[in-house]
Amino acid sequence: MLFLIWSYTIFYSIFYPVIKQSYDNLKNSKTYGLDSSLGFLLSSYNYYMQKILQQKYDNLSHWLFQKKSLAIAFSGGVDSSLLLTIAAKALEPSRIVALTCVSKAIPQAEINQAAVLAIQLKISHKLVTVDTIKTINEHDNSPLRCYYCKKMIFNAFIKQAKESGFATVIEGSHQEDETDYRPGLKALKELSVASPLKICKFNKQEIRVLAEQLGLPHYNKPSSACLVSRFPFGVEITQKALKRVEYAEKFLHTLGFYLCRVRDYGSRARIEIDKAALPRASTLKEVIQKKMLLLGYDQADIDPAGYKRGSMNTR
């Protein structure tokens, strides 16, 4: 089984994109007589991928079903949304509570989206207010800010879970989170918070595929991080600065740039946009810069390197 999973991973990461692109190119050029072998290979791969995905889904459902009750950290993103959706299928609703953090570092739109899905799933949903910004500033906004923030949030979640009678607190990290700079993962381990998606070896692409199959409307939503990640280490984080970043990114969303970050350097904004959208962004450069100036930045530049996850970790 381990060999099959290893083979699947290698094929998926290296060969599948090439095969699929070739297949799409052939279909687009209408040369149907040439694509049969590629089509068969792609079809075989999709069948194999679905088998692997079904096994992981079954493992996750079984893991969740074994728990007496669950308090699920629920941000409204695709990872925690999938986890909550599968939990709602595995357990009675009365055995589940969704916990969402309310903080100045979290856009209100994210909290609203979480509330909507919880209602749709008929799962009890509790908002837990935590002053994460105070904690981050008390620790000088150090490179370990994610650790301090995560520990504070999950201590509050654990307290809420105990008060509400829920035995196990879980959250939605997956395998690929281990490859990024995530000091917050240490806090989860220290607090014995389980990550079932990681335990069942889900990667991000599998989460999106399964979320789509289960009918989650935002299955392809770009990953998001709290607004503190837009600021360099060592600077004081203020509510005013957080709101400015939130409004700036919301404006970019209205222009159709959903995968974006406004990196805040006080008087200067460095705007990261998905590389594929950079050509269109360049045509709207003046519009974007004008809005940033209205929000209080003296300078605003679109980064030609495009969006890069965790870019502030190295700056």
What is the topology?
Blueprint lengths: L1 H27 L7 H30 L4 E4 L4 H13 L5 E7 L5 H14 L2 E6 L2 H7 L6 H20 L3 E3 L13 H7 L5 H4 L4 H10 L25 H16 L5 E5 L3 E6 L4 H6 L1 H10 L4 E4 L13
Parallel strand pairs: 1-2, 1-4, 2-3, 6-7
Antiparallel strand pairs: 5-6
Describe this structure in words.
- There is one protein chain.
- The protein has 315 residues and is of the alpha/beta class.
- It contains twelve helices and seven strands.
- The protein folds into three domains: 58 residues; 147 residues, HUPs (Rossmann fold, 3-Layer(aba) Sandwich), CATH 3.40.50.620; 77 residues, Alpha-Beta Plaits (2-Layer Sandwich).
- A hairpin with a 3-residue loop joins strand 5 and strand 6.
- The chain is globular.
- It starts with a helix and ends in a 13-residue tail after the last strand.
- About 2% of the residues have low confidence.
Keywords:
315 residues, Alpha-Beta Plaits, Rossmann fold, alpha/beta, 3 domains
What is the radius of gyration?
21 Å
Shape: globular
Q: Would you tell me which CATH topology of the largest domain applies?
A: Rossmann fold
Roughly what fraction of the amino acids lie in strands? 5-15%
> What's the number of helices?
12
How far apart, in Å, are the first and last alpha carbons?
Answer: 42 Å
The CATH class of the largest domain, by name, is: Alpha Beta
Sequence of strands across the biggest β-sheet = 3-2-1-4
Helix-strand string: HHEHEHEHHEHHHHEEHHE
Strands, total number? 7
Task: Give the name of the CATH architecture of the largest domain.
Answer: 3-Layer(aba) Sandwich
Query: What share of residues is helical?
Result: 40-55%
- In CATH terms, the superfamily of the largest domain is HUPs
| Mean of residue pLDDT values | 88
Secondary-structure-derived class: alpha/beta
Sheet of most strands: 4 strands, parallel
- Please give the domain count: 3
Regions with little confidence, pLDDT below 50 for 5+ residues? 29-34
